[in-house]
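Let us work through a complete example step by step.
Step 1: write down the sequence.
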Amino acid sequence: MKKKALAVLLTGVLAAGILAGCGSTEEAVERPTMEEAAEETSEEEAAPAEEEAPAEEAVEEKGTITVAASPTPHAEILEAAKPILAEQGWNLEVTVFDDYILPNQVVDSGELDANYFQHIPYLDEFNAERGTHLVNAGGIHYEPFGIYPGTKKTLDEVADGDVIAVPNDTTNEARALLLLQDNGLIKLKDGAGLTATVQDIEENPHNLEIQELEAAQVPRVVGEVAYVVLNGNYALQADFSVAKDSIAYESSDSEAAKTYVNVIAVAEGNENNEGIKALVDVLKSDEIKQYINDNYDGAVIPFN
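Step 2: predict the structure and record it as tokens.
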């Protein structure tokens, strides 16, 4: 009985020691008080949640607009319009042409949506001669026609037999002859107007030779003739400034400005196409007008 009592007593002591040891371990770990825990919770709730940046709205893609254009200034102006159209969801593709025939043919056939290189008299003449059905979708700019120096620097130097190079297409030749008439070099028959050719020269006091060349070729003979009469875009390509280099040019408030406005041309029936209307609106915008005024030194004038 005594042995059994002693065993029970030792078991109780060991158990108490174990419990005491466990109690010591728990006391070694620091535990926040209820007040401290409440403060931590309060601080977490007070911290602002990290806001997610709003996702950029994707631009709705509306389609592609394909345009044929002369290199200068037309294709350059279209390039300036590209990012503005892109913001509206339109992709603008520009194909550059160096002549005045193909840009109309590819639009009439439906290969491209529009072109930008010509004025209305040329467009009307092209339709009449070739049976195409192209229409004006919007006037964009005007390019003053100018007389530029060749071997002679001023009109006071003109002499008998001098050669003057002009474009040979009907409307631009007439425009060149009218400008020569306005500056006293020749006189045309009454009523010759916008269809004038060298056959309509009634008076030629200096016996000038009018050399008719394809428009793109005129700047290339500057060193061979007394004067050249140039379209605005070909003057730019030849590094002529209307304001600084021309001997004489059409005034911006002249009838020519209205008659020879450069337009976006499309196949008949497409003038109200959504993409074409967007293109015309952007080309007539304040941003593009500013681009034109900043870059062309008076050789290109926005059309209101």
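Step 3: interpret the result. Confidence is low (pLDDT under 50) at residues 1-29.
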